[in-house]
Amino acid sequence: MKKSLITVLALSGVGVALSGVSALAHADTTTISNQMPSNGYAVLDNSNKVIEASSPVLLNNKTAKDKSAFLFGNSFAAVNPVSSHGTWTYFVDHRGLHDYKWSHSNYHDTKYYHYGKAKVGKGGYVTRYASAGHWAYATAKGHGKAYAYYGYR
């Protein structure tokens, strides 16, 4: 039994390595307060570094490695201080051949109707809406630059 389990785990690891898909994801989280614009965006490179953004605050955001938690082989961040009303988490994963990736934009707002929007390359936008107190999860898949957006009303 033990030998079979080790063989299965080893073959699974080889399969993931050969597929070109990254098994790790690092999320970056921005706290949305009344001092932030009611909508914004970030463009991410393959390392989840923000390379363009609608606000200097987003460009100066620390990397996910600085404030993330490790869970099941993935790193995720979640910060929501009392003075804020929203948490926006964005990241790229499933990176593969020919610049293929998934872009995620997940937004939670405690006070306002809101959305998360994602896009990759020349593909279409994927927008998900949620009422106050719920998460809006948007995931886009494709080739090219990864875009993540948030907004509330």
UniProtKB/TrEMBL annotation:
Residues 1-27 form the signal peptide. The keyword Signal applies. It comes from the Bacteria. Keywords: Signal. This is Surface layer protein A domain-containing protein.
